[in-house]
Amino acid sequence: MKNVSETILAGLSDRQQQAVKHTEGPLLLVAGPGSGKTRVMAHRLAYLVGVNNIPADRILAVTFTNKAARELKERCERLVDFQKEFLQVRTFHGFCARVLRFDGDYVGIPREFSIFDEDDQKKVIRRSFEDENIDIKQHSPGTILNTISRLKNSTKMPDEFAREVSDYGQEIASRIYSRYQSILDVSNAVDFDDLLLKAFILFNDHKYVLDKYSDRFKYIQIDEFQDTNPLQFKVSKLLSNNNGNICVVGDPDQSIYSWRYADPSNLTDFKKSFPKTTVITLDQSYRSTKNILDAANSLIVNNPDRTDKNLWTNNDIGSKIAVYQTGSEEDEARVVLDEIQRLNQSENTPLNEIAIMYRVNAQSRAFEVLCQRLGIRYRLIGGVKFYERQEVKDVLAYLRIVNNKSDDAALLRVINTPRRGISDKTVAEIIRMARENNTSVFSIIAEIYSGKLTGELIPRAIKSIKAFFELLEGIFDISDQLDITDLINFILERTDYISYIRRDEDKGLDREENINELKASSDQYTGIDTGSQLSSFLENVALVSNVDNLEGGDDVRPSSEDLTLITLHQAKGLEYDAVFLVGCEEGLLPHVMSIGEPDSLEEERRICYVGITRAKNNLYFSYSLVRRFRGVTGGQMLSRFVNEIPENLTTKKYARGFSHPLIDGYLKNSPNRKFKSPNTRPLVDEKRTVQFSKGTKVKHDIFGDGIIIKNEGNEGEVVFLKHGVKRLMWQYAPMIVIEKKRRHENDSHDFVDPEIDTA
């Protein structure tokens, strides 16, 4: 009979065993796709508990998503017998939320704080614009929200940013940031960035609290370290400095979240922060065929300054990678779905083992339309998730108010839901009074109820507000006596919410089922202290709805009857027997916004690498000669990424029978026609290209105002006032001319007619 150690190490390769047994001191585990990373992490945790006899509650395992946390914990439970509730497997945000729930008072955060999701944040931003009398049409709320997120991730608070303001745009952002944070503070709320920022401040400024957690968690293991941001790295270092028993797992070639401030250099900087680090590389893939891995290696090697890693496998060579040339997005959908039906019907590949992957969500349309026409069942990943559905958010808002009366976002969501005669004008007056008194909306409603405040409210409005206050007070009075499920039932009864949603004849029953599902999801919290029960439930909901939005999350559930349609970002961590990478064109993959930006282009290559390495046995690329994108129909070029893969690994296939005015007489349906090289000029809108001459002032949807400084026919360079120099392809740039340079004889060379590829 095997002992515990033999059981845990059984079936692992030498490298994997080495990683599992390395428990003391810093460890950097570089794990390629399909190398058994999750298995190694689970066995390593089991080894700590089962062989080294480390108490489970002394171990902290950090994952990127809640889904990954559940899977890791379940694998550990199958390997060694321990009290699973003591093993801390959490996301970074989940761990920080727990810390703040217990010790947040050191940094001014009450125990009952709310976590504002993306929808709440947008509403607070809009409210901030109104409070500051700033025209929302002149400044993008989304851009300012991104600025606030960036500032928080660089640990910059509103007052510090205000001292650094150097232009009008920054002044606007500073005013909104200050007001935004003020609303959060009054609401006893934090946003997602605050979870990390406040935890960092707590650990950095309060050594007693830091020592408490670093003494408890003697062993720390962090997954997907290439996707951590600088703030998460700082928290990691603070927690592990006392012990040094930290293991980080990652792959710099799969770092694809720079827009969330993920920094792949954290992996290399880890060795600088922990000089005694042992580095183990897992480069044997158990997932993909040799051809697929060779393609992935050939692609990613084009990224300079990367950590040297070459995937290999003992699997079969496998089929060549098919590259489909099609006429349009509709032709592409037809060709791809024809092949999917062949795989399903002739090779018995279940539909749930096939995925269509694309760079941007809009690309799913043609495939959805044709799937519906052909009767192919499919699952679109990234639709409206459970906790984002209207009725679910409404019920959760009532629960949030019970947990935190100062939660303005929750209260404003349901103040007139179901309708109770409180107009938008009345709500605006309540918000005005809250701003002037620097207090919460609930406090103002309580003052109105007591008669201490009336503002400019008419008697009918005051009557409606008083009725709403009495409704809430009735819920508050009984909330301590009920578990969450019973509390939800009580809220539904008092608000008559079920009757409200049943008025929706088309979706009423579905919406009612969603509420029943919400009640079922709260059952696991029954039996613990009522106050803690509600806080824990709401915290879990907030973390699930935010973190798992980054990947497929809970929406990715296997079904033998469903084909998967998914973005490349959401596909990370998944695997399929057959993968179709569609829209492999310059401007889509790589995305137009990355072209001319070396760092962004490298990330686009990593995104493609992630897609390739999801495939186990069959991999397909497809592209269209003509595509309608951003409202403009134009010719396309095959992605440079496909051309970076050696021809001996691919087989070229041409769609027949397609036609489009731009390509009639261009392709001639010739099966022997050479593939377009990445240097071939695309078919372009000639008038659009000519208007972008040197010196022309333009306005870009994302980068704002700029001046063209170089025109090279189909592309050129623009210097933007706030974003510096960008290289753009005129065909794809979401940009308009706002002032054309006056044409003189000596600059006539700027007006170059582009060559139209009609060969």
What does it look like?
With 759 residues, this protein is of the alpha/beta class. The protein has 5 domains: 190 residues, 3-Layer(aba) Sandwich (Rossmann fold), CATH 3.40.50; 74 residues, Orthogonal Bundle (Arc Repressor Mutant, subunit A), CATH 1.10.10; 183 residues, P-loop containing nucleotide triphosphate hydrolases (Rossmann fold), CATH 3.40.50.300; 152 residues, PCRA, domain 4, CATH 1.10.486; 42 residues, no CATH class. Helix content is 43%, strand content 14%. It contains 28 helices and 22 strands. It has a 7-stranded parallel beta sheet with strand order 11-12-10-13-14-9-17, sandwiched between helices. It has a 6-stranded parallel beta sheet with strand order 3-2-6-7-1-8, with helices on both faces. A 5-stranded antiparallel beta sheet has the order 21-20-19-18-22, with no helix packed on it. Helix 8 runs antiparallel to helix 9. The longest helix is centred in the middle third of the chain and has 21 residues. The N and C termini lie far apart (72 Å). The C terminus is likely disordered.
